C-alpha cells in the first residue's frame, strides 16, 4: 500500500517538474520559429495518467516539447498561408489593364475575372491572363463583384527638357542669336547642281569639266548616285558641282540636290527636247528658288535643233535672254568639249552677281549629300559645308547619330585637313550612317552629341507611340462594331444555339488553316534589300512603296540596309523564305556558296530599272497560273432525240459543225441563250452509226454528254482546250 502511494507521489513530482520546465522554455520563446514543424507521435498527457509505469522523466519531457513544437509551427504555417485580404473598398483602375493586373487589384483570382466576363460581350476563348481589357469591361467586372472603382492617379511625367541642337541663325535658349558679322564673311565657291533628263549628257558634261572619266564608270552609262566634285577653272575660280541622277527613280535625290545648291544648270539634249525629268527638274529649281542656266547639249548632231528646245521651255516659264528673259542659254557639246568654257564663264558670272559669301568661323553647319558604308572605313558621308570650317576632331550630329571626325577626304579620296564653306568633303568617324539630306551640326562635346541624339530618339519614339495608339484604337473600334453586329444577328437565339452557329461558321477555318498558311507563304514575296549608299536605297524603297497589287501577291520588306551581302542577310532570307536584292553591292564567294546550300536567291544589279524588272519576274513566279480556254470548234443543235441504253434513256443532240472541229478528247460546254449551262466531257460522238474521234467543219454528228441533260434546238456546243498560262503582275512602277 505504502509502496503504491510512494510511486504515485513520485509520478506527481515528475509531472510537476515537467510542467515547470515547459513554462520556463515557453517564457524563453524556445518554442518559436527556430523549431521546424514536426508531426507529433506522442500521446496526450492525459492518456498517460492511468499508466504510471510508462512515465520516465525524459519521455514525458520529449512528448510535451514535441506537442509544443507542433502547435507553434502550425500557427506559423497558418500565417504564411494567409490569403491577401479581399478589397472591400474601391478598386483603383487605369487604362490598358490586363486580366492578371485587374485580379491583383481586386484581390481575386483570375477565375473570378473570367466568371465576371460572362456578363460582357467578350469572347472568353480569346482571353488570356495578359489580355488587355477595355475600360467599360473593367467597370462591369468590378460592379458585378460588388465593389466600387476609382480612376488611379497617373503619375505626371515631368516635361522633358529640349536638348536638341539648332542652327545659329534660329531662336535658341529663348533669345535670338545675332547674324554673322559682315566683316567675317568670306567669298565661297558656288554650289552648282546639274539637272536634266536621263541620258541627256549631264555626267559627260561634268566629265569634260573635270577632265576625268566619270561616265565610263557609271552602270549602263546612267548616274545613280549624287556625286559632289570641286572643279578648278583655268581662271582660278572654284565651282562645286553636284551631278544628280536623271532616271525617274531618283526624284528624291534631285530634290535634295536643289536644296543645297546656288545655281542649277539644266541640261537638255538638242535632238530630244523637253522630256519628263526636264520638267521635274524645272519644278525642283522653282521650289528651291534657285536661278537656272540652260545648257543645250549634243549640238554637234545633225538632227540638233536648239531653237526648238528654247521654244518648248517657254511653256514651262523658262524664258531665255534672246526672248527677253533672264535665263542664259549656252549651246554645247559635252562629248567634244565645245563651248564648255563659255558655260563655265556664265556660271562664274552668275555666282558673282549672287555675291555668295559664308562665315568660316564658329560651329560647323552642313548637309549630308550621300552616305554609305565602307568595309575598312565604316560609315562615310559626302557633305557640303555651309558654315564654319570642318577639321579633324570636330564632334558632329546628323539625324539620330553623331561622329567625332577622324579623317576628311576630297572627291579623289585624298585626305585633307580642313573643309571650308562650299567645299564637298567625305567624313569618316560616324557611329551610324546618317540619312541623305540630314542636317549636320557641330556640338561642343561628345556628351552634348549624345544628349542631342537621345532627345531626337525620344521625340521619334513619342511620335511613333502616338501613331500606334491611334491604330490600336481604330482596330478596337472596328472589332467592337463587328462584334456588336454579330451579336445583333444572333440576339434571338439561345446561348446553345449561338454556340452551335458560331461553331459551324468557324468549322471550315479549323480544317483549312494549314492550307491557308501554305497559300499565304506562296503568295507573299519577302525581300531583303541592300544598297551601296543611302540615296540609292531610298530610291528603291520609294519605288516599292508604289506597289499596289497586294491582292495578287503581298510584298513584304523584311530588312533593308547598306553594305555588301552578309550571313545575317542569308539567315533572314532563310527564315522568311525571301529573296535578297542587292544594288551596287557584292557578295563574296563564301556567301554565295552558303546561299546555294540553303536555296536562297541573291539578285545583284547595278542598274535600277533592271533590278525592278527582275523583281517583277519574281512576283510573276509567285502568282498562280491562269487557265485560258482556246476554242477549237463550234456546232449547233439542229434536232434532239433519245436512245435507250439498258433501262435508261440517254438524250442525244443532232449537230452540225460550222466552225473548226469537234475532238472527243477535248473539253466541251453547252451554251443556251448565251449562258453556259454545262461543262465537261462527251460520253459519245457518232457520225451516222459509227463512233468517231473527230468531226470536221460541215459534217453532221450525234453526241451525248456525261450528264443526262436535255438539249434544245438552237443550243451551241463549243469544243475547247484548257491551257495553263503564267500570270503577270499588273504593278506599274512608272518607268
| CATH class identity of the domain at 189-356 | Alpha Beta
CATH fold node name of the domain at 189-356: Rossmann fold
* CATH superfamily caption of the domain at 189-356: P-loop containing nucleotide triphosphate hydrolases
| Distance between the amino and carboxyl termini | 128 Å
Query: Uncertain runs with pLDDT below 50, 5 residues or more?
Result: 25-75, 77-87, 170-177, 212-226, 246-251, 510-520
Number of strands: 35
Tell me the β content: 25-35%
Helicity, in percent?
25-40%
Oligomeric state: single chain
CATH architecture of the domain at 189-356: 3-Layer(aba) Sandwich
Largest sheet: 8 strands, antiparallel
Mean pLDDT, all residues: 77
Secondary structure class reads alpha+beta
Number of helices: 16
Tell me the overall shape.
flat
Structural topology:
Elements: H1 2-27, H2 57-80, E1 90-93, H3 99-106, H4 110-117, H5 135-144, E2 148-151, E3 171-172, E4 175-176, E5 185-187, E6 191-196, H6 202-210, E7 227-232, E8 238-243, H7 251-259, E9 263-269, H8 276-288, E10 292-297, H9 306-314, E11 328-331, H10 340-354, E12 357-359, E13 365-374, E14 378-387, E15 390-391, E16 395-398, E17 401-409, E18 415-416, E19 418-419, E20 424-430, E21 439-443, H11 446-489, H12 495-522, E22 524-531, H13 534-545, E23 554-562, H14 567-576, E24 579-583, H15 589-598, E25 601-605, H16 608-622, E26 626-645, E27 648-660, E28 662-663, E29 667-672, E30 675-680, E31 682-687, E32 690-691, E33 694-695, E34 700-705, E35 716-725
Parallel strand pairs: 1-2, 6-8, 6-9, 9-10, 10-11, 22-23, 22-24, 24-25
Antiparallel strand pairs: 3-4, 5-12, 7-8, 13-14, 13-21, 14-20, 15-19, 16-17, 16-21, 17-18, 17-20, 26-27, 26-35, 27-34, 28-33, 29-30, 29-35, 31-32, 31-34
Helix pairs in contact: 1-2, 7-8
Amino acid at each position: 500500500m505504502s509502496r503504491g502511494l510512494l510511486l504515485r507521489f513520485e509520478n506527481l513530482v515528475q509531472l510537476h517538474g515537467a510542467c515547470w520546465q515547459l513554462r520556463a522554455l515557453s517564457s524563453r520563446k524556445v518554442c518559436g520559429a527556430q523549431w521546424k514543424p514536426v508531426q507529433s507521435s506522442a500521446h496526450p498527457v492525459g492518456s498517460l495518467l492511468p499508466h504510471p509505469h510508462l512515465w520516465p522523466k525524459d519521455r514525458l519531457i520529449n512528448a510535451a516539447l514535441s506537442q509544443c513544437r507542433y502547435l507553434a509551427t502550425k500557427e506559423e504555417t497558418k500565417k504564411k498561408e494567409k490569403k491577401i485580404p479581399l478589397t472591400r473598398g474601391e478598386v483603383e483602375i487605369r487604362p490598358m489593364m490586363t486580366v492578371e493586373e485587374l485580379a491583383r487589384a481586386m484581390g481575386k483570382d483570375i477565375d473570378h475575372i473570367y466568371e465576371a466576363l460572362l456578363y460582357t460581350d467578350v469572347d472568353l476563348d480569346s482571353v488570356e491572363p495578359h489580355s488587355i481589357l477595355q475600360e467599360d469591361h473593367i467597370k462591369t467586372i468590378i460592379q458585378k463583384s460588388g465593389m466600387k472603382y476609382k480612376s488611379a492617379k497617373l503619375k505626371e511625367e515631368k516635361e522633358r527638357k529640349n536638348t536638341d541642337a539648332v542652327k545659329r541663325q534660329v531662336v535658341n535658349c529663348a533669345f535670338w542669336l545675332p547674324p554673322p558679322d559682315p566683316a567675317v564673311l568670306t567669298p565661297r565657291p558656288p554650289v552648282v547642281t546639274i539637272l536634266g533628263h536621263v541620258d541627256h549628257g549631264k555626267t559627260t558634261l561634268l566629265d569634260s569639266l573635270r577632265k576625268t572619266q566619270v561616265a565610263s564608270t557609271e552602270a549602263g552609262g546612267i548616274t545613280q548616285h549624287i556625286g559632289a566634285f570641286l572643279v578648278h577653272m583655268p581662271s582660278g575660280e572654284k565651282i562645286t558641282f553636284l551631278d544628280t541622277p536623271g532616271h525617274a527613280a531618283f526624284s528624291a535625290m534631285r530634290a535634295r540636290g536643289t536644296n543645297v545648291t546656288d545655281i542649277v544648270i539644266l541640261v537638255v539634249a538638242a535632238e530630244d527636247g523637253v522630256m519628263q525629268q526636264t520638267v521635274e527638274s524645272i519644278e525642283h529649281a522653282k521650289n528651291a528658288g534657285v536661278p537656272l542656266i540652260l545648257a543645250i547639249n549634243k549640238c554637234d548632231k545633225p538632227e540638233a535643233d536648239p531653237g526648238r528646245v528654247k521654244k518648248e521651255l517657254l511653256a514651262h516659264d523658262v524664258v531665255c535672254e534672246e526672248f527677253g528673259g533672264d535665263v542664259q542659254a549656252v549651246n554645247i557639246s559635252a562629248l567634244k568639249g565645245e563651248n564648255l568654257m563659255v558655260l563655265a564663264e556664265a556660271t562664274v558670272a552668275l555666282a558673282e552677281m549672287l555675291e555668295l559669301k559664308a562665315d568660316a568661323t564658329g560651329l560647323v553647319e552642313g548637309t549630308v549629300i550621300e552616305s554609305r558604308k565602307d568595309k575598312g572605313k565604316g560609315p562615310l558621308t559626302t557633305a557640303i559645308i555651309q558654315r564654319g570650317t570642318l577639321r579633324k576632331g570636330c564632334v558632329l550630329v546628323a539625324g539620330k547619330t553623331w561622329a567625332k571626325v577622324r579623317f576628311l577626304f576630297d572627291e579623289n579620296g585624298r585626305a585633307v585637313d580642313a573643309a571650308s564653306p562650299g567645299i564637298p568633303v567625305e567624313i569618316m568617324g560616324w557611329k551610324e550612317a546618317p540619312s541623305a539630306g540630314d542636317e549636320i551640326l557641330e556640338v561642343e562635346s561628345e556628351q552634348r552629341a549624345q544628349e542631342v541624339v537621345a532627345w531626337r530618339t525620344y521625340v521619334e519614339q513619342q511620335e511613333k507611340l502616338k501613331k500606334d495608339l491611334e491604330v490600336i484604337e481604330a482596330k478596337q473600334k472596328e472589332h467592337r462594331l463587328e462584334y456588336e453586329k454579330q451579336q445583333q444577328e444572333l440576339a434571338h437565339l439561345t446561348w446553345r444555339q449561338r454556340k452551335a452557329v458560331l461553331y459551324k461558321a468557324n468549322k471550315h477555318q479549323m480544317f483549312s488553316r494549314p492550307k491557308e498558311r501554305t497559300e499565304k507563304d506562296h503568295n507573299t514575296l519577302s525581300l531583303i534589300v541592300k544598297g551601296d549608299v543611302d540615296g540609292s536605297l531610298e530610291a528603291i524603297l520609294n519605288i516599292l512603296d508604289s506597289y499596289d497589287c497586294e491582292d495578287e501577291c503581298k510584298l513584304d520588306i523584311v530588312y533593308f540596309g547598306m553594305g555588301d551581302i552578309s550571313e545575317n542577310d542569308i539567315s533572314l532570307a532563310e527564315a522568311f523564305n525571301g529573296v535578297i536584292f542587292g544594288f551596287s553591292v557584292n557578295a563574296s564567294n563564301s556567301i554565295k556558296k552558303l546561299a546555294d546550300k540553303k536555296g536562297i536567291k541573291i539578285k545583284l544589279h547595278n542598274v535600277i530599272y533592271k533590278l525592278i524588272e527582275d523583281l517583277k519576274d519574281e512576283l510573276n513566279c509567285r502568282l498562280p497560273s491562269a487557265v485560258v480556254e482556246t476554242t477549237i470548234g463550234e456546232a449547233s443543235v439542229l434536232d434532239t432525240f433519245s436512245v435507250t441504253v439498258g433501262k435508261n434513256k440517254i438524250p442525244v443532240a443532232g449537230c452540225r459543225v460550222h466552225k473548226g472541229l469537234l475532238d472527243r478528247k477535248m473539253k466541251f460546254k453547252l451554251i443556251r441563250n448565251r449562258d453556259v449551262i454545262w461543262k465537261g466531257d462527251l460520253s459519245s460522238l457518232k457520225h451516222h452509226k459509227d463512233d468517231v474521234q473527230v468531226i470536221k467543219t460541215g459534217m453532221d454528228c450525234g453526241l451525248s454528254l456525261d450528264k443526262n441533260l436535255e438539249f434544245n434546238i438552237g443550243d451551241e456546243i463549243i469544243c475547247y482546250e484548257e491551257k495553263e498560262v503564267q500570270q503577270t503582275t499588273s504593278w506599274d512602277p512608272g518607268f
